[in-house]
Write a structure and sequence with these properties.
This protein is of the alpha+beta class and about 375 residues long. It is about 30% helix and about 25% strand. Strand 13 and strand 14 form a beta hairpin. The longest helix has 19 residues, at about 340-360.
């Protein structure tokens, strides 16, 4: 693993102090081993969540993405004056990160898309430009398009897959068999595959890679959040709004999606006053307006609708039903051009999202409610 992933960054006096939480799972001994292999300094541990506990007694739900799941670790980190909280989920295949905000002692919890952009750039950076034409990076189709922007600007191959690492890992193996150097794959649900150590999401190796990356930036006098700001200045601000509505009637979800289809290979051309420039339907419509034969390159499913609209203003919105929960999910991201302030992109997205949801889903009319 060290040969494939570690860059030999030495932690000086300016390196970040790390607190780790296993979230009542199995990650602690394995993350300790990965840090040792990377020659990273020992980390502090959230003691109340260090050992496996099938009742997950200190959290409402043992997913570090959930609101409040990192609160205990962040409180301990503040007491110990740590800079970063590194967290795995109980089976240690996902990675979450929080960084203390300079000055006020608050925390910035990075989302999966932000961690993905940071790791993608880090994995690509040491590869010389003349070798990048055979480098590939992957993301699930509902994840941020920022990694695509990085790949395109740096002359790398980028592909999307359906959600889930069974698709990402499989495609990574196929590309490697074709001679591609697949250096990174991710999904916004905090799943990351760094290098070719394993063709699956792995929170253990990702924890070590992220910490080594953070060490490098701290040694240069900037935080992880400041590095993310630099990437946004270089590749554009990518601001997202991802959530869901509870939908206990599968037929209602199908009828909502069907209302967007106007006939064979014909779809609505605007939503909420925003012009649609491309449509991909991975459901019963099996349509992609961007391909020569108008057929999607990704697999389709008649039982699980998934439709993506691309808008003239740079926004991409994907809607899909969940295969395991009574949820109608949406992933809406606006891509700002390099140099446009994040606050401006955020304001435009905040104005757009409710208009889209009302035009496309009509939650009040259909009796749909979102999370609390």
């Amino acid at each position: 693993m060290v040969k494939q992933l570690a860059r030999g960054i030495k932690s000086g006096s300016s390196g970040p102090k790390v607190l780790y939480t296993a979230m009542h799972g199995v990650g602690l001994p394995w993350v300790k081993q990965s840090f040792n292999m990377f020659n990273l300094p020992p980390f502090d541990v959230e003691p109340s969540q260090a050992d496996p506990d099938p009742t997950f007694s200190t959290v409402g739900f043992p997913n570090p993405e959930e609101k409040g799941a990192l609160d205990r670790a962040m409180a301990t980190a503040l007491t110990l004056k740590a800079d970063l909280v590194i967290a795995n989920d109980p089976d240690a295949d996902r990675l979450a990160v929080a960084e203390v905000a300079p000055g006020d002692g608050g925390w910035r919890v990075l989302n999966g898309n932000e961690i993905g952009a940071l790791l993608a750039h880090w994995m690509l950076e040491p590869i010389q430009s003349e070798h990048r034409s055979k480098v590939a990076m992957l993301a699930s189709t509902v994840s941020s398009k920022m990694v695509r922007a990085i790949a395109e600007k740096e002359n790398c191959k980028f592909e999307e897959t359906l959600t889930g690492f069974k698709w990402l890992g499989r495609r990574a193996d196929e590309l490697r068999a074709e001679g591609w150097n697949v250096v990174f794959a991710f999904e916004e649900a905090i799943g990351f595959m760094c290098g070719n150590v394993v063709s699956d999401k792995d929170g253990v190796s990702a924890a070590a890679v992220f910490t080594e990356m953070a060490t490098h930036y701290y040694n240069q006098g900037r935080t992880v959040s400041q590095q993310l700001d630099q990437l946004s200045d270089q590749y554009g601000q990518f601001v997202s709004n991802n959530s869901y509505f509870f939908c206990h009637n599968p037929e209602l979800a199908k009828s909502i999606v069907a209302s967007w289809r106007l006939g064979d290979n014909q779809y609505i051309s605007e939503a909420g006053g925003y012009k649609i420039i491309a449509v991909r339907d991975l459901g019963i419509g099996a349509y992609d307006s961007t391909t020569p034969d108008l057929k999607p390159t990704l697999p389709t499913s008649t039982s699980s609708p998934m439709v993506t609209f691309s808008f003239e203003n740079g926004t991409v919105a994907t809607f899909r039903t969940s295969g395991t929960e009574p949820k109608f999910k949406y992933y809406i991201e606006m891509a700002g051009k390099p140099g446009v302030p994040r606050e401006q992109v955020q304001a435009e997205l905040d104005e757009m999202v409710p208009k889209l949801l009302e035009a496309l889903i009509q939650p009040s009319k259909n009796g749909l409610t979102g999370p609390n």
